[in-house]
Design goal:
Helices cover 70% and strands 1% of the residues. With 306 residues, it is mostly helical. Keywords: Isoprene biosynthesis, Magnesium, Metal-binding, Transferase.
């Protein structure tokens, strides 16, 4: 393990721990202003799907992209927690019988299996909603306009032209609504998976009130990293081990999904990842050594085993 890799791993683990602690606090039984009560079953279901697992890559990207500009870590962690709530909600809904019908997530029963479909739907709804409560809080940034820009960016990454739109395109490609519809895999990836990862990168630029050039650099980096992440995920679905993945392997093939692997082949997909790593590295050149941790993050995404 190189010094850079060791530092990356240390920082990733620390952000995961810090995000876990923050989410546990945000998703406690205690109400906040204007709330009436937090129903026990709902908050327990939200905590079940949000705590105790995951690499917390998305909050890590927020924290490290913000660190490039010297943004206070606690503010970046708060923005990262909002993003993680969106991610966790998406996993709950993605696992439902009407979507991917998955029984296993992070090595344990999915929420609808541990509880029931109705609880899972409402827990996902509540996580989506609390994300926008969190992202607008004063402690994220003193400038209300910065918080507005963050909120708008998160909404667009999560919604019609982002993750939710990507989900329905994915289902259409499986033939859920009639005949299979042609799939533009690159565009689908940019929406379903890449949009939230990209937000994790541009959030730092928004928090840091960056120059246009710096924002564009993190935008380019985020797009390359997001695509590399999806290709790695597609490769893992073919080559990975279910025990290491914490979910069934081969799920994409079983659902008849069109993926980067089905379009490019295994070797073509691996070459595409190498090209994307070079693109991510080039995008970060504007930051010099300040971009080293983000460079390591791109390598981690490309080489991950789960």
């Amino acid at each position: 393990m190189t010094t850079g890799t060791a530092e990356f791993s240390k920082r990733l683990d620390q952000t995961a721990d810090d995000t876990e602690a923050l989410l546990a606090k945000l998703l406690s039984d205690a109400t906040v202003s204007d709330e009436i009560v937090r129903p026990k079953r709902l908050i327990e279901a939200m905590r079940y799907s949000s705590l105790g697992g995951g690499k917390r890559l998305r909050p890590f990207l927020v924290v490290e992209s913000a660190a490039v500009f010297g943004v206070p870590r606690q503010a970046a962690l708060m923005a990262g927690a909002a993003l993680e709530c969106i991610h966790c909600y998406s996993l709950i809904h993605d696992d439902l019988p009407a979507m991917d019908n998955s029984d296993l997530r992070r090595g344990r029963p999915t929420l609808h299996k541990a509880y029931d479909d109705a609880t899972a739907i409402l827990a996902g709804d509540a996580l989506l909603t609390i994300a926008f409560d969190i992202i607008t809080r004063d402690e994220i940034h003193k400038d209300a306009n910065v918080r507005l820009l963050l909120t708008r960016a998160l909404a667009r990454a999560s919604g019609i032209g982002g993750m939710a739109g990507g989900q329905i395109l994915d289902l259409a490609g499986e033939g859920r609504f009639g005949d299979r519809e042609p799939v533009d895999v690159a565009r689908l990836q940019q929406m379903k998976t890449g949009a939230l990862l990209r937000f994790g990168c541009i959030a730092g630029a928004i928090l840091g009130q960056s120059s246009e050039r710096e924002y564009q650099a993190l935008d380019d980096y985020g797009k390359a990293l997001g695509e590399a992440f999806q290709i790695a995920d597609d490769l893992l679905d073919v080559e990975g081990d279910a025990a290491a993945l914490g979910k069934p392997a081969g799920a994409d093939a079983a659902l008849g999904k069109t993926t980067f692997v089905t379009q490019l082949g295994i070797e073509g997909a691996k070459q595409r990842v190498r090209d994307l790593l070079a693109r991510a590295d080039a995008a970060l050149s504007v930051f010099g050594a300040r971009g080293d941790v983000l460079r390591a993050a791109a390598r981690f995404v490309a080489e991950r085993k789960n």
